[in-house]
Amino acid sequence: MDLAIAGKWALVCGASKGLGFGCAKALVDNGVNVVINARRPEVLDEAAKLLIDVAGAAAQRDGFAAAKVIAIACDITTVEGREAVFSADGGPGKNFDIVVTNAGGPPPGDFRDWDRDAWIKAVDGNMLTPIELIKATVDGMAGRGFGRIINITSSAVKAPIDILGLSNGARSGLTGFVAGLARSGIAAKGVTVNNILPGKFATDRLEGNMKVAAEKSGKDMDTVRQAQQAVVPAKRFGHPDEFGALCAFLCGQHAGYITGQNLLIDGGMYTGTF
């Protein structure tokens, strides 16, 4: 399917690996120019090299110009980091057509151990930073008549996980904000805002959570891994490429009537009807 977004510009946060990289890869494969962001320059540079290869292969296959890939290593949760992204040499400034917000989730644990600073950091990274990115880009999207905002949140928004209290709280706040924004005047101007809620994907984040679960239960990692795969109806963890494909579709021209939604991608784990 031609998503009809070749040549557009996307900002993809947390794109050095995992779900963010999966999204950037799928967009580049569809001819979208990307500015990718993460904190660690060495890991981000490796991701950029892989994406450049994908861009070249896609251009040969589909006959469009190879997508540009710009890597900006910075802390996107800071004013300075956001300015670095918006002033990237060769980038679109704040004139992004697509913004994919993504932040490493707050650490798991027991809420009794979290002080105010821990909560503020979680809210800043997983609620306020996405809002700042949206605020900086959404009016430009509306003015041009096209925009796609995708927030990578968590299945814990829909089905809270006890050890992920910081994530449950911060991401739920973002979800409430998005629900209102998506149904405001921007919807009539071609701008959609959606959240993707990942379940158990093979990422470093999942490995970290399983490590905490192993330490808490006294079981070894293999036992915990097998047990967690067993509770997924698909009997496996998701792959970041699967996540990226959904993200790219939501960014495409064919998804213009989908907005304000929380799309769960979890291999069937959520057992509710709605």
From TrEMBL:
InterPro entries: NAD(P)-bd_dom_sf (IPR036291), SDR (IPR050259), SDR_fam (IPR002347). This is 3-oxoacyl-ACP reductase. Belongs to the short-chain dehydrogenases/reductases (SDR) family. Coiled coil: none annotated. It comes from the Bacteria. It comes from Advenella kashmirensis W13003.
